[in-house]
Amino acid sequence: MNTCPENIVMMMHDYLDEEISPEHEKELKTHLQSCEACKTHFHELKKTVALVQSTSHIQAPGNFTQNVMAKLPKEKKKAGMNRWFNRHPLLAAAAVFLILMSGSLMTSWNGGDELSFTQSDQVVVEGNTVVVPEGETVQGDLTVRNGDLRIEGTVEGNVTVVNGQQFMAGAGGVTGEIEEIDQAFEWLWYSIKSAAKELGSFTSNDNE
To answer: Where are the transmembrane segments (predicted)?
Structure first.
């Protein structure tokens, strides 16, 4: 066949596909009568086509796919988790961060009941009460834990009182939100929300 014209094989395929022209069919038959190698190759092609046609009616059982999937080795949970972490690295990092932070916050909550508050030169402490004196302005958020908060001046931010009470006197005012938290889990939820907000702000700035 190496010395035969290249279009002979193409004619074989056209003949088997029933797309050959009468002229090419005549040329092919004439060539096959004089070339034993092409004749053998042509018969092999015809056998292959006949075999494919004879098996065209065979169909796989309806549950074939389910049976094959059931016999495959089951994926380990660890592998599934690793794939999820690889696909969502940012969410994975945030989840781990929140879990670790939750543990530290619960430890911190149970660590004592001493008065603590956001350090500011504009506040004073009277016993167990943190006071924003009249005429003073605290710039930013103010948090008081295990004590009360009395606002006579102004807080330009959010105010949070944990395990205590907040009240305003005179012309005192707060430009942000005021929240009182009395239970450990409320404090935990508040801290998680705050951390998530900061994390979202960080990732947003990082993407920019």
So the answer is: 90-109
CA distance 195 to 101: 9
Predicted local confidence at residue 77, as pLDDT: 55
Which pairs from 202-205 meet CB under 8 Å and 24+ separation?
A: 203/90
Both tokens of 41, joined, read 């190759």
**What confidence score (pLDDT) does residue 206 get?**
47
At 93-130, the pLDDT tens digits run 666 666 666 555 555 444 456 888 888 899 999 888 99
Tens digit of each residue's pLDDT (9 = 90 or more) over 145-188: 888 888 988 899 898 888 788 777 766 788 888 887 765 555 55
Where along the chain do its domains lie? 7-54, 77-108, 113-207
Alpha carbon distance 140, 175 (integer Å)? 10
In Å, the largest CA–CA distance within the chain is 117
- Helix, strand, coil shares of the chain, percent, nearest 5, are 50, 15, 30
Q: Where are the beta strands (DSSP E) in the chain?
A: 116-117, 124-126, 129-132, 137-139, 142-145, 148-151, 154-156, 159-162, 166-168, 173-174, 178-181
Q: What is the mean pLDDT of the chain?
A: 75
> What is the CA angle 152-123-120, rounded to 5?
135
